[in-house]
């Protein structure tokens, strides 16, 4: 498996390109602010052909380059319906906190083809499977994408802004809810194996085991019992 990631734009948002191997089809995750050039360079470097863009949530730092990236390659964008409005009205989603000068640099709106994500869906894209889990708290439509363990590659969780190395996503913007975030962490993250690699929306990679042991926001949370 090939996973190529880079931090993009003013917020250093991690954009990931995922493919079975170099020279094959790929999926682009969270092409945010000023990510388009990095996407094109990574596609060229690894000889990749994108088939879809998938979004962990709708904040502008994760979706700002969706229109140019999807348009350049004629691919759809997948997003949870509760965050879809953010692509066209990013300031409403952030409480108008990002400022007009920065907004003037962005292409606001939806790409031509938008598909909606649902909890529990199994997206089969570019010969890979991405398990979708609705994980509200940072936004109402936040999701994670989980890739199962394959051969000697451990299970991977693209956590968006739900879980970071040593921290969690903020909940002080419109649609944020701290209690919902904690419930999502308990339901989505805690049941995963300690070896699961976490690739988040910001900062370095980590593992579920490391966060279970050291992340203060996970302390005192209990994973839901099986069958409940």
TrEMBL record:
Q: Taxonomically, which superkingdom?
A: Bacteria
**Limits of the Metallo-beta-lactamase domain:** 12-202
Chain intervals for the UniProt region annotation (Disordered): 201-228
Q: Which SUPFAM superfamilies match?
A: Metallo-hydrolase/oxidoreductase (SSF56281)
Q: Quick check: keyword Cell division in the entry?
A: no
| Keyword GTP-binding included in the entry's annotation | no
- Record-linked SMART domains: Lactamase_B
Cofactor(s) recorded for this entry are: Zn(2+)
Q: Which Pfam families match?
A: Lactamase_B
Give the UniProt keywords, A-Z. Answer: Hydrolase, Metal-binding, Zinc
Name the UniProt record assigns to this protein: MBL fold metallo-hydrolase
């Amino acid at each position: 498996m090939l996973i190529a990631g880079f931090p993009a734009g003013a917020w250093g948002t991690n954009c990931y390109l995922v493919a079975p191997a170099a020279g094959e089809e790929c999926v682009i995750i969270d092409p945010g602010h000023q990510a388009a050039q990095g996407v094109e360079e990574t596609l060229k470097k690894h000889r990749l052909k994108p088939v879809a863009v998938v979004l962990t949530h709708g904040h502008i730092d994760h979706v700002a380059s969706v229109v140019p990236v999807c348009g350049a390659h004629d691919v759809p964008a997948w997003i949870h319906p509760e965050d879809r409005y953010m692509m066209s009205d990013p300031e409403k989603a952030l409480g108008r906190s990002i400022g007009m000068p920065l907004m003037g640099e962005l292409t606001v709106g939806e790409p031509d083809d938008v598909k909606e994500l649902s909890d529990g869906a199994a997206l089969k894209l570019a010969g890979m499977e991405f398990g979708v889990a609705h994980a509200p708290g940072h936004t109402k439509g936040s999701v994670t994408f989980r890739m199962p363990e394959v051969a000697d590659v451990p299970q991977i969780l693209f956590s968006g802004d739900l879980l970071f190395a040593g921290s969690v996503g903020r909940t002080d913007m419109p649609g944020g809810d701290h209690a919902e975030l904690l419930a999502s962490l308990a339901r989505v993250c805690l049941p995963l194996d300690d070896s699961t690699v976490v690739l988040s929306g910001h900062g370095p990679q980590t593992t579920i085991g490391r966060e279970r042991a050291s992340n203060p926001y996970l302390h005192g949370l209990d994973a839901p019992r099986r069958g409940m």
